[in-house]
Fold this protein.
Amino acid sequence: MEEELAVPLFYRQGRAVVLSPYGRSFLEHVVRALNVLESGKRVLGERSGAESGTITLGFLHSLGIEMVPRLIKEYRQKHPGVQFRLVQHSGKMVMQDLVEGAVDLCLSVPGMFDQPSIRWTHLLDEELVIAMSQTHRLATRRTLRMSELSSEAFLALSPGHTLRAIFDKACTDSSFAPKIIFEGMDIGTLRGMTAVGLGISLLPPAPVRMNRTVEIKLSQPHPIRPLGIGLVDERYLPPCAVQFRDFVVAKFTRA
């Protein structure tokens, strides 16, 4: 260090070594620097601790209506010191956030959009339904076949959303190209347009009943949206995030 600073930091007095005037002056800065580093270590400890850390969670737009708020509320009842930073995106973007390290964990559809570095744990299969206005000519049906809807006007999410990929595959499997009259960015908009009869949509069941809208199940094979929790293999995961992941997996395993 003396060579780097080009001044003597210590003098020898008999068998003892004492600070030179340069050394005493430099020591003040060293102490301040060590205090800053120690403060940084405490911040990291607080952010990454199992009971007082911060979890950065990415999730699909549609999961912010009911699933994510419920999971966070239940988890924080047991671990009140843990904080959450939430990132809401389309399926393709939320997985990109995870791969790039912007989030610790993500809730999305496993195996979609070709991200092999993500390790998924399956949580549930969500059966999709056809949503339509109560005044639609098919609104009284108990079930429908996807092939019966080939001439209908559809409202769909834009490409890059997991539900759009599932919708496209369902139409292909039923041997028709859908007539899409609107592409939106969120399910709430599709539900609103569906309610006034502008088209029909393939959606997850609404968490609460919507006025002027009916939801009709599709007969076999009915489309499903698998949901899982993902992380990047061999990347450091804070203890609080590990604990939250285990909580989520256990909750759906018990269900």
